[in-house]
Amino acid sequence: MDEGYSSAAMVALVTASLRRRGLPVPDGARCEGPRVTLSAKRRLLAAVAAAYGESALILAGQAVAGGPFDPLGHALTSAPTPVECLARWGRLERYVHSRHRTIIASESSRGVRVRHSAPAGSPPVRHESLLVAGGCWRACSRPKGA
After folding, report:
1. Whole-number Cα distances in Å, 59 to 18, 112, 144
2. Smallest Cα–Cα separation from 15: which of 62, 79, 74, 60?
3. 69 φ, ψ (degrees, to nearest 5)
4. Of 29, 31, 17, 18, nearest in space to 97 by CA
5. In whole angstroms, how large is the CA radius of gyration of the chain?
6. Among residues 62, 86, 53, 77, which one has the least CA distance to residue 13?
7. Are strands 35-37 and 101-108 parallel, antiparallel or unpaired?
């Protein structure tokens, strides 16, 4: 059975965030190749959370807007509004990983409620949702043109 995949871009985001803060990738958690298995990505995220705390995953997600030019990051951070940023992510995420979707559950003048789910198969684990939450927050809060 196909367990799904995650783009190496997601793994690179995590490892680059650690490197910028002078932290090594935890032993046994390295992933190689253009796509990694869902289980390998989950091992990496769990190892990072165990070694540095869950906040490291939120910070890694926020790195989507802080690294060198990346077409995906640019597409998200150039959105004129947080809702458009999330809508763009919703259209692009199927190219980044195979199993999970981020859906705008509700929006109001105070904010947006987002649901990270799996249409089929096992749902996202907490560590995956923390990474996505950091990325959504950072990409959506960056001033346009910054």
Report:
1. 9, 20, 20
2. 60
3. -55, 130
4. 31
5. 15
6. 62
7. unpaired
CA distance 88 to 102: 10
CA atoms within 13 A on the CB side of 69: 1
Sequence-distant (≥ 6) Cβ neighbours of residue 121 within 8 angstroms: 4, 99
Element (H, E) at 108: strand 101-108
The CA distance from 6 to 111, in Å, is 28
Distances (CA, A) of 115 to 2, 9, 48: 24, 22, 23
pLDDT digits 0-9 by tens, 122-139: 788 899 888 888 877 776
Q: What are residue 112's phi and psi, to 5 degrees?
A: -130, 135
- Give per-residue pLDDT as tens, 97-117: 667 888 888 888 777 888 888
Residue-level pLDDT at 1: 41
Q: Which position has the token pair 């150039």?
A: 78
Element spanning 112, H or E:
strand 111-117
